[in-house]
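Fold it.
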Amino acid sequence: MSKSLISLAVTAFILGGCSLIPEYNQPAAPVAAQYPQGPAYSPAQAANVAASEQGWRQFFHDPALQQLIQTSLVNNRDLRVAALNIDAYRAQYRIQRADLFPAVNAEGSGTRQRVPGDLSQTGQAGITSQYSVGLGISAYELDLFGRIRSLSEQALQQYFATEEARRSTQISLVANVATAYLTWQADKELLKLTQDTLGAFEESYRLTSRSNEVGVASALDLAQSRTSVESARVKLSQYQRFVAQDLNNLTLLLGTTLPENLPTGQPLSNDLLTELPPGLPSDLLQRRPDILQAEYNLKAANANIGAARAAFFPSISLTASAGTASGDLSGLFKGGSGTWLFTPKINLPIFNAGSLRASLDYSKIQKDIGVANYEKAIQTAFQEVSDGLASRKTFREQLQAQNDFVQANQDYYRLAERRYRIGIDSNLTFLDAQRSLFSAQQSLISDRLSQLTSEVNLYKALGGGWYERTPAGQKQPTSGDVPSTRLF
């Protein structure tokens, strides 16, 4: 038995390196080598630090937002599930890889049986005993054509894909928390603006009402003034609702309530974000986790083709055991009680109604799907970055124009108020100036929010949000749970 086992082990070692996995070639990126250029885009700039390596504490300047992001990385449930998925796929890989090695079991058994006389060879009833102890290998498959290795490689690539999925989840979480916080701050500023404007409208309404009582202002002036008050009250209720809903959304993303020691948020007009150069589209292939995840899934599908191919060839499995057996418990370890069993088994596919061919075709189709998903991930990333770059310049110009528009409306409001107070213009002109100024100020806050949100989305599109800090020459992962690459 020992010589047979040794020869089979040598054969398995020689042939174990055989693999039917197709050679993997990374698909060409289906996008241009440069981001779009034109009137909507700023000139390209060299990137000293890639956006994906820019720590979110350096990118976001608001201390309150930094604390909220830190809280979400500890408590968010989606991120927690993503981390647990990594552990689950790591365990699946370890299970699959274990099939490469024989499972050795220790076994011990004892049997006592009464045999009736009519069934006994001696014709007399009696009691028989049998005891055995040994080591056994059960149905160990020799991986001659790499089927098990292909499945193990597939599980490994799927595990790597879940690590990238976890990174993608964190990057999205950082961006979502930032967007939710900025929206909350914007709606609070809009609520404060509405409260101040409502106070001004109510004061104007009181003055118009007094003028109407003494016959200076007409009923039309009074009605017009009242419409401004009621319109502002509608906006007040609307922004109160928005602020409450924004806080609920932020709480869900955090996975807990807001920290008690949360610093006061900075105004939207402050310098809240760091502007980052985009680099080159090719950088996305190495830095965006969703692209890396799609490529790992593609590699997993490629490895599965090897397993499907190996299924066409014979498979050899071994069952063996060695030990000692005796009719008496005291005689288990006496000389001459040794026993062994060796059962090799070969399985050669002959007819399966096309099942194996269909399995191979299916695995090839799955690879083609993986290629399409990988290319789509690249195209989506390219489009998101291009949109962000277009938004950067145009929002900057739009915001400057809106600032000028607010300034013009403030001048209009001051002139209209002065002329109304001294009786040159009617109340209608003054009310129009109030409404125009209120509308322009609302648009300014909304435009600033849109600008900040687009910069956050660009940071996310470039793969930023994984690192907490980026010291010079050193990358440090965030203080959240970083997935381990240890498989055993």
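The first helix runs from residue 2 to 15.
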